[in-house]
Write a structure and sequence with these properties.
With 157 residues, the chain is of the alpha/beta class. It has one domain (10-156): Alpha/Beta hydrolase fold, catalytic domain (Rossmann fold). The chain has 6 helices and 4 strands, in the order βαβααβααβα. It has helices at residues 17-29, 59-65, 72-80, 109-112, 116-122, 145-156; strands at residues 10-15, 38-44, 89-95, 125-131. A 4-stranded parallel sheet has the order 1-2-3-4, sandwiched between helices. The chain is globular and about 45 Å long. 34% of the residues are buried.
């Protein structure tokens, strides 16, 4: 006997450029009721501002004000963030591979967390978490035990 459980919603994970791919999907199709609604979204080392560092901003400033240096990709988020369904819960995760340079070695934290302010402004439930310790480079993050456990708990709580 086979049992199939059909869920009334989907949880999605986007890694690296896939983080921005999911965000674009949420903007373009989040209210399309012919598709399964998204309940929870995790961005793991997501790229939302073309991996642009913010040398004159702290992470706290990026979270509060958004990035000072904005690319055309970030401009799209600025113009469309209100199209994301407010009921979607989001988690932004980034690896602390190089604390001094504030990066996972590929994507600056300021990029991964650059949309935090937009999600907050939109009314979404959103948290950000910087993962420290081993296996925190960009290539290692999909295998990072802290990230995997955080995602499991978030998706299945």
């Amino acid at each position: 006997m086979v049992s199939i459980i059909i869920s009334p919603y989907a949880n999605v994970l986007g890694y690296s450029a896939g983080g921005s791919g999911v965000y674009r999907y949420l903007i373009e199709y989040g209210y399309d009721r012919s598709l399964p609604p998204i309940k929870k979204w995790v961005s793991l080392d997501g790229q939302f501002n073309a991996s642009t560092p913010q040398p004159d901003q702290t992470l706290a400033q990026v979270l509060t004000d958004g990035p000072k240096v904005k690319t055309k990709y970030y401009d799209y988020w600025l113009q469309n963030y209100e199209r994301v369904d407010k009921s979607i819960q989001a988690v932004l995760l980034a690896g602390d591979y190089d604390s001094e340079k504030q990066t996972d070695g590929t994507v600056p934290w300021a990029d991964s967390f650059s949309i935090y302010r937009l999600l907050m402004k939109n009314g979404n439930s959103v948290v950000h978490y910087l993962i420290k310790g081993k296996d925190t480079s960009h290539a290692e993050m999909p295998h990072n035990k802290q990230a995997i456990n955080y995602i499991k708990v978030f998706f299945y709580e």
